[in-house]
Amino acid sequence: MITSIKDCATLNNGVKMPWLGLGVWKITKPEEIDFAVKTALEAGYRSIDTAEVYGNEEGVGKAIRESGIPRDEIFITTKLANSEQRKGYDAALRAFEESRKRLGVEYIDLFLIHWPVKDKYVESWKALIKLYNDGLVRAIGVSNFLIHHLEDIISETGVVPAVNQVELHPWLNQSELVEFCQKHKIQVEAYSPLMGGRLGEVTELNDIANKYRKTPAQIVLRWNLQRGIIVIPKSVHRERIIENSQIFDFSLSDEDMELINSLNRNQRFLPDPNNVYF
């Protein structure tokens, strides 16, 4: 039972990762990234998710240092950009080091392959395995990988990712992928869990929210947690950052869980991982 913002999932290598984190995609203004990260940390968040392509690693690192919270209490995730992945194995290793320098940290908690770039992601996975074996990163994983991508890297290397971060929300519940990952002890992490602000279009969520005296966003985040899925909602607004953290004092009934599950449309708002041309 997940009942506290301090609660963590245990990854397949024993590393603890918070169930709730702050996503910082599209937050590029220095003052906004500083405010969002510090506000989240003040609210009790202990996980921050960034990426090279977000262009805000430096700001994330600065805000973490200035927060006064010990480094070992904060879980930092960043990702290998497609542009670097396309350059091959050595470029992936260099990209990790550049991310580490921009963040201003000795180590990174979780390093992910951002997208499964065709004919490159297996090679990239081998680079991440080296980084892990060298003790430079506490856990390695992937993002936007479908079942066949996961099967490829596991069969080629024998190393199972610790995390698969994917687009996941009520209209794209990824049930088959979640089942596969849970069977293979890969922790699923949901990005864009709040459908990019489209939750208001889902009338069923309003009904459930009224029942629990919560917001639709809080309902959806709790739905993810009860499925065993880590969530990283994004916001630059204090009230939303705090609201998104207030999901540990209630539980959804089995009936309401099933109702939200039934909303699936297999609808993506972001690119199809089988067609990575960017």
TrEMBL record:
Its EC number is 1.1.1.274. Transmembrane segments: none annotated. Keywords: NADP, Oxidoreductase. It comes from the Bacteria. The record marks 79 as: Lowers pKa of active site Tyr. It is an enzyme of class 1 (oxidoreductase). Residues 20-264 form the NADP-dependent oxidoreductase domain. InterPro entries: AKR, Aldo/ket_reductase_CS, NAD(P)_OxRdtase_dom_sf, NADP_OxRdtase_dom. The active site is at 54 (proton donor). One of its GO terms (molecular function) is 2,5-didehydrogluconate reductase activity. Substrate binds at residue 114. The keyword NADP applies. Belongs to the aldo/keto reductase family. This is 2,5-didehydrogluconate reductase. The lineage of its organism: Bacteria, Bacillati, Bacillota, Clostridia, Eubacteriales.
